[in-house]
């Protein structure tokens, strides 16, 4: 049986080689809102580690709160260069503090400052003042420590659909489902 995560990694590497996109790692993360409405936003895939898809961000953001409330999430990739779509459904669990530290260390200074000074998704009364404070902190060129509320999630997939678009519109779709800890697959109609 083919492991869909191996297929994903092959497709991802092909897209990285062919893509002229600035952020080919962009993925749409969908969560179930605390008001039961679905929520979707683009985040950056950090890597696939131990067969889990890693994303990062503040735990006290809307996505963090929603994932804490309901760990069932979905990821959707659309890759223009290779004309492929990948849909993943899975369970999200927080990553370790050490792993969060490592990912935070890789971020740009501006990203670190924004993460440390802003409460993602919260209302701001004076946007210009906040931006000025952030830019001042960026210019200081000091070490920025990871805020305790900034971490990330490892998404363990239970379903992965790989779809190759065709000009004939007869798209090639394979659905993988984890059953008793083994991947089962079948073709599905376009």
Please trace the helix and strand order, writing H or E for each element. Answer: HEEEEHEEHHHEEE
| Gross geometry | globular
Low-confidence stretches: none
**How many DSSP helices?**
5
Distance between the termini: 22 Å
Structural class comes to: alpha+beta
Q: On the 0-100 scale, what is the average pLDDT?
A: 91
Major sheet attributes: 9 strands, antiparallel
Compact description:
The protein is α+β, with helices and mostly antiparallel strands and 190 residues long.
Structural commentary:
The chain is of the alpha+beta class and 190 residues long. 29% of the residues lie in helices and 38% in strands. Strands 1, 2, 3, 4, 5, 6, 7, 8 and 9 form a nine-stranded antiparallel β-sheet that branches. A hairpin with a 7-residue loop joins strand 7 and strand 8.
Q: Which descriptors apply to this entry?
A:
190 residues, alpha+beta, nine-stranded antiparallel sheet, 5 helices
SSE diagram, text form:
Elements: H1 4-18, E1 26-32, E2 38-44, E3 47-49, E4 52-58, H2 62-69, E5 72-79, E6 84-94, H3 97-106, H4 109-117, H5 127-140, E7 150-164, E8 172-179, E9 182-188
Antiparallel strand pairs: 1-2, 1-5, 3-4, 4-7, 5-6, 6-7, 7-8, 8-9
């Amino acid at each position: 049986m083919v492991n869909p995560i191996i297929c994903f990694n092959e497709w991802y590497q092909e897209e990285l080689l062919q893509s002229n996109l600035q952020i080919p790692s962009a993925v749409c993360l969908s969560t179930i809102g605390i008001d039961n409405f679905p929520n979707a936003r683009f985040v950056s895939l950090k890597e696939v580690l131990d067969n889990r898809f890693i994303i990062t961000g503040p735990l006290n953001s809307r996505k963090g709160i929603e994932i804490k409330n309901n760990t069932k999430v979905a990821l959707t990739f659309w890759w223009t260069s290779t004309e492929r779509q990948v849909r993943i459904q899975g369970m999200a669990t927080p990553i370790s503090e050490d792993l969060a530290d490592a990912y935070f260390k890789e971020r740009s200074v501006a990203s670190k400052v924004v993460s440390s000074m802003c409460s993602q998704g919260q209302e701001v009364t004076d946007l210009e003042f906040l931006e000025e404070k952030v830019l001042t902190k960026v210019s200081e060129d000091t070490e920025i420590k990871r805020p305790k509320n900034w971490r990330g999630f490892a998404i363990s997939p239970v379903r992965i659909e790989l779809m190759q678009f065709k000009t004939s519109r007869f798209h090639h779709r394979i659905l993988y489902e984890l059953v008793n800890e083994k991947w089962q697959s079948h073709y599905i109609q376009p």
